[in-house]
């Protein structure tokens, strides 16, 4: 029996690789003839770098950068030397998780550190980069990244803008003349797990700003500042990308990556599956088991279990999702190729109790699942 174990990470509990091995351990208790196929996945958000490194054997490198609040931080990135390809995860440099609740303020957080990771990749001779968007603490439309890469963002007095999305309201001049010329030869794919535009009620500020510390008044302030930035960018570039699906990803980094760096925005799960050789593994599988921390109606926008189910449906391979919790609208996953979905908890328990038991719960669910699968098969 060949089973493909391809979960995303379980936030604050297990990496995707750890989750996949926990699943395989549980399944092995119920099937002595098990041939596990391990394929850790992610959708472009936090944990995507780890999943890519595990899937491709890329070298993990470290670079000192400035975090979202301008403090020195060691950030990891991936390097495939034979392919001259860099893996850059935004959350490593400008992520939300390292900040305390009190430190989260989308008006002032910056993506400058992401630009520093790009410079490190260029210094290593990168010809291609996979930019992993998600888990950001920022709402600056990628302005900080552009400043790190040499762009000049000036106010009406000719002074450089301070960090953060709120400062974009004062932008008077945007100059790309000193942007690092090596970027012109860098082929960039940006992995997104949402399809939000840059602005408006479905945009970066309104949808994601509150989780980054923005009050309703600050959401409006940030949206207006991003709109002003988009206006000036359109004049400089001769085109307007604010309505591009995915432009609002990671506080507007999708917009900056596409508009200024020429990046192609792709669903993160599709990009990760391609890098991991998912189709080759799927062709061998009798059953697919995937999962992540939460499955709900929002998962259909591009989360890992849905991307896996859509791919498996084309090969008529059944897919089971194991999730930390099942939220509103999770039943819609059945229309996307999911065969069945289960929550992990074996009884009422607070999250603080469930997180340390995630591996144990995954093992138990997989054991029971394979026992049922074996009994149901001719």
Name the CATH superfamily classification of the largest domain.
Answer: Glycerate kinase, domain 2
Q: Could you describe the largest sheet, including whether it forms a barrel?
A: 6 strands, mixed
Query: How many discrete domains?
Result: 2
Return the CATH topology of the largest domain. Answer: Glycerate kinase, domain 2
Summarize the structure.
It comes from Vreelandella subterranea. With 378 residues, the protein is of the alpha/beta class.
Can you offer a commentary on this structure?
By secondary structure, this protein is α/β, with parallel strands linked by helices. The chain has two domains: 138 residues, 3-Layer(aba) Sandwich (Rossmann fold); 222 residues, Glycerate kinase, domain 2, CATH 3.90.1510.10. Helix content is 35%, strand content 19%. It has 13 helices and 13 strands. The strands form three sheets. The protein has a six-stranded mixed sheet with strand order 3-4-5-6-9-10, sandwiched between helices. It has a five-stranded parallel sheet with strand order 2-1-11-12-13. β4 and β5 form a beta hairpin. α1 crosses α13. The longest helix is centred in the middle third of the chain and has 22 residues. The radius of gyration is 21 Å and the shape is elongated. The two termini are 13 Å apart. Belongs to the glycerate kinase type-1 family. One of its GO terms (molecular function) is glycerate kinase activity. Keywords: Kinase, Transferase. It comes from Vreelandella subterranea.
